What we know:
With 317 residues, the chain is an alpha/beta fold. Helices cover 34% and strands 20% of the residues. Helix 8 (249-263) packs antiparallel against helix 10 (280-298).
Amino acid sequence: MTEHALVIGEALVDVVVGADGSSEAHPGGSPANVAIGLGRLGRDVELLAYLADDPNGAMVREHLAASRVALAHGSLGAPATSVATAHLDHAGAATYEFELEWALAKGAAARPGPIVVHTGSIAAVLAPGADAVRGLVESLRNPPQGSGATVTYDPNARPSLMGAPVEARAVIEEMVALADVVKVSDEDLRWLAGNGEADLDAMAQGWLNLGPALVVMTRGGDGATAFLSHGRSVTVPAPAVEVADTVGAGDSFMGGLIDGLWSAGLLGGARRHDLHEIDRSTLTAILERCARIAAITVSRPGANPPGSTELELEPHV
Length: 317
């Protein structure tokens, strides 16, 4: 059986409103963007989402199919496909408003035995679907038989949907405790801390005490730092690039991180110990590639991660 990834979470339509008032609609959603990034890098990936059989849903499904992302059975149970409106400032940074509902539809089912399962953002926090997501992730991580999947997680906070930071943090840290790999932005950590003077490095390192092998904090144009469970850290710079917008940048970084760990043979429950012992040179190479992937994404409008050809790589089989 071919190794495959399962991504669980929202797929929706992003309406991007520019600083000049112009607007364009693009398929989006953080987990969907991660799945698309993996598909474009040649990975066998399935998305368990919550879409409707409506025009917006058709746009999203076409976009997924074009990037070789399979949609899991039961993903079309929503009453309407969700919409996120991203307002861009003059620097291209986005703030969001949502018309969104999230759940796992009755009868939704994914292919068995993924080597990695990823979730994050709205799907792992918003009721009523979040509890079902956590239950499914836990069952895939620790199945009755077999070694289970590596769990990757990106909180990708949406303050307008997630309530008070202290409440969101409690829910997010439940998922951190299930995860083997966490990717989080400095902006998310700052919001969760509720304190502009918080020691973000200490927060990220503190999450290692909950169980992950690796917590990666991204800092936009200032690069990224990975904190490892064995006490070391690795920092890489971000390539210089002219920014079109930042939509999907973190998601493309996350897809690259999963892909890089996959290529290094560090995914799957049987490799959990090896993941905790990842060496600095391997991790540095993975993170530098992730930063390059994110830089390409921010250089063009919308969540549009690069494929293998753009990275001068052959697709994985």
